[in-house]
What does this fold into?
Amino acid sequence: MIAVVQKVKRAVLYSEGKKYSEIGAGSLVMLGVSVNDTLEKVKKLAEKIYKLRIFDDENGKTNLSLKDVDGELLIVS
It folds into this structure.
């Protein structure tokens, strides 16, 4: 399993030319899953993404997580 996480101000997912999903500020995750991945691996990766500190705090330092900023999450497999 592999994930590419991108901090976004806004993200829109289109499928076949139609808007499928949309989020405001948060994280866009492009996720690759294998048949060999277990539920335990999925839970561990989800926890890591949720706690990943990629958002700026009040001092401009990259020190806050998705959880801390109450951000939105869009996952694309």
Notes: The radius of gyration is 14 Å. Helices lie at 39-51, 66-69. The CA atoms of residues 12 and 18 lie 10 Å apart. The beta strands are 2-8, 11-15, 18-23, 26-32, 53-56, 62-65, 72-76.
